[in-house]
């Protein structure tokens, strides 16, 4: 958070806007503004007045304001007419690939000799049922172990509420969506399940920007399991507010987080998933194709996960057994399998590796100084991993879904990193729709007109005509913003973008820790292992974002 100011977001380009309506705005509807200004000839003839120099200046400024306001009104009226239909040029814009690989830093796959993978939400894909399971198990733990009110058992997971990349303020109890610079999204601040207004945000925080001191009280909800956690935190806060019970926001976070962690570490969720894999896991034949292709190309493969081996083994068998000759063969694909790695501490600690006996279900006492085929290892650390494997940082790429636990450590250690962001696929499909691009272009047009309006009139010369036009433009911009937001998520909007079109704080972290990002690891099947993945020449903050130019409306 403290380093947000080091990065400067690339705004939507307005260079093409100046010629936006050069052909059709001259014939736009003209609204008279004369009622908003008084004629200089209306002075009473009975009381002669000596005009001073500043009076002439003021009159000249009013005339200029009149002409500028009239021109902006013309452009706005013509714009509203052009909004009646989607331009053909917009329909012809190229679509982005939802299964594409998007590049933050140039990556030559030919230089990559070692491929490492996390398990959950990287190799294993889960159905929507998993979030409900985690939510319900954590809710029960709050009531049964932490003695939360029995009424909390009535809570239901709401998949429409949370998104990934939110922040919870442990001091003030608010759930926040932040932009690339660490400022609170005006429409993305909730206390419980109630959205706070901009005035309430200002009252609580003083400003939308989160300073360094305030950032210390924030916790990021970044992995795919955070959906159930964010929803449960908001539901508990709302329940306490409705019941008029006093509470400490920090305690609620600690209790909910402990409950979520218990669900994972106790094995409750693991056992439910393995007992009914059809309800939670998705069969994935393409994954096997990716892994075997890499092996055939002579690449080394390793699995590094925090999950216990029995859970990984059961899931891999279920996902791959339909495509493989026998169930145990998935282990033969990997050169090294490490379970219960305890990331992110794995990257900084000096814990030794232990060999896991799969038959006796215990750890052996022999020293691990080599990684042997078909063996399973527990714990360990990055330092020992590099010493034993002899794999150098730049030749290793690691795939994971958690930006902090999975990717921050490898990135700092010199590994190349690939973020697996499951939601990316759906968000790109929405961005490809004509309806979304139409609203985005409208937003850009209104934004430019508002910029012109603010630039022409000083604070001391804001007439009623100015205020009326400002109100109309602001409302039109808000309408476009609301429409785009609801296409993604009615509460918080898109994962990667704010409602104002800036990249989100989540996008900032991807840009910082992921060399490439994609929706599934299997998308690398579309690229040969010798491919060069390069940053687009027209680089934006996030290369999967399309900036729709307003000039598409020019020749309607």
TrEMBL record:
Residue sites binding Mg(2+) per the record: 118, 401
Tell me where on the tree of life, at the top rank, the source sits: Eukaryota
Molecular function per GO: 5'-nucleotidase activity; metal ion binding
Q: Which Pfam families match?
A: 5_nucleotid
Tell me which cofactor or cofactors this protein depends on: Mg(2+)
Q: How is the co-factor bound, per the entry?
A: Binds 1 Mg(2+) ion per subunit.
Residues noted as binding GMP in the record, renumbered to the chain = 120
Q: Which InterPro entries match?
A: HAD-like_sf, HAD-SF_hydro_IG_5-nucl, HAD_sf, Pur_nucleotidase
Decide whether keyword Magnesium is in the record.
yes
KW Coiled coil (keyword) present: yes
Q: Which residues form the active site?
A: 118 (nucleophile), 120 (proton donor)
Cited Gene3D superfamilies:
HAD superfamily/HAD-like
Chain segments annotated as coiled-coil in the UniProt record: 463-490
UniProt keywords (A-Z) are: Coiled coil, Hydrolase, Magnesium, Metal-binding
Family affiliation:
Belongs to the 5'(3')-deoxyribonucleotidase family.
Q: What is this protein called?
A: 5'-nucleotidase domain-containing protein DDB_G0275467
Species name for this entry? Cucurbita moschata
């Amino acid at each position: 958070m403290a380093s947000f100011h080091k990065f400067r977001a690339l705004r939507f380009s307005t260079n093409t806007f100046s010629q936006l309506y050069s052909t059709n705005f001259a014939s736009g509807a003209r609204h008279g503004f004369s009622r908003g200004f008084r004629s200089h000839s209306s002075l009473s003839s009975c009381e002669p007045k000596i005009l001073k120099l500043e009076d002439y200046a003021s009159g000249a400024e009013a005339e200029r304001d009149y002409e500028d306001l009239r021109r902006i009104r013309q452009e706005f009226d013509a714009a509203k007419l052009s909004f009646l239909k989607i331009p053909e040029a917009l329909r012809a814009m190229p679509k982005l690939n939802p299964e594409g690989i998007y590049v933050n830093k140039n990556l030559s796959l030919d230089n990559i000799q070692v491929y490492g993978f996390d398990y959950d939400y990287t190799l294993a894909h889960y159905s929507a049922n998993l979030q409900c399971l985690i939510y319900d198990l954590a809710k029960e733990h709050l009531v049964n172990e932490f003695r939360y009110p029995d009424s909390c058992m009535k809570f239901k997971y709401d998949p429409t509420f949370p998104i990934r990349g939110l922040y919870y303020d442990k001091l003030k109890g608010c759930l926040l969506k932040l932009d690339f610079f660490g400022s609170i999204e005006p429409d993305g601040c909730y206390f419980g399940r109630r959205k706070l207004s901009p005035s309430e945000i200002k009252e609580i925080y003083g400003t939308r920007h989160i300073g360094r001191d305030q950032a210390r009280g924030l916790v990021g909800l970044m992995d795919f399991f955070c959906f159930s956690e964010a929803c449960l935190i908001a539901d508990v806060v709302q329940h306490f507010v409705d019941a008029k019970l006093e509470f400490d926001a920090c305690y609620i976070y600690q209790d909910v987080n402990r409950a979520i962690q218990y669900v994972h570490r106790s094995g409750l969720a693991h056992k439910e998933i393995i007992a009914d894999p059809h309800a939670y896991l998705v069969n994935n034949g393409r994954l096997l194709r990716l892994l075997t292709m890499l092996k055939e190309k002579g690449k080394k493969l390793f699995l590094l996960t925090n999950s216990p081996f029995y859970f990984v083994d059961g899931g891999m068998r279920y996902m791959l057994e339909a495509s493989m000759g026998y169930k145990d063969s998935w282990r033969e694909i990997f050169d090294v399998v490490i379970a219960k790695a305890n990331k992110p501490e794995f990257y900084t600690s000096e814990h030794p590796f232990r060999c896991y006996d799969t038959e006796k279900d215990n750890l052996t006492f022999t020293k691990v100084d080599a990684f042997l085929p078909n063996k399973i290892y527990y714990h360990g650390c990055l330092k020992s991993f590099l010493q034993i494997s002899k794999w150098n940082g730049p030749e290793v790429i690691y795939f994971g879904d958690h930006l902090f636990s999975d990717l921050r450590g490898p990135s700092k250690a010199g590994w190349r990193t690939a973020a697996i962001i499951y939601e990316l696929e759906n968000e790109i499909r929405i961005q490809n729709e004509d309806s979304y691009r139409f609203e985005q272009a409208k937003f850009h047009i209104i934004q430019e007109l508002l910029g012109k309006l603010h630039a022409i009139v000083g604070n001391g010369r804001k007439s009623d005509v100015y205020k009326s036009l400002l109100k109309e433009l602001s409302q039109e911009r808000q309408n476009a913003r609301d429409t785009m937001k609801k296409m993604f998520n009615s509460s918080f909007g898109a994962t990667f973008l704010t409602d104002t079109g800036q990249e989100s704080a989540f996008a900032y972290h991807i840009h910082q820790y992921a060399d490439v990002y994609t929706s599934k690891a299997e998308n690398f099947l579309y690229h040969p292992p010798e491919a060069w993945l390069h940053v687009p020449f027209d680089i934006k903050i996030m290369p999967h974002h399309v900036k729709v130019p307003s000039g598409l409306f020019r020749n309607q």
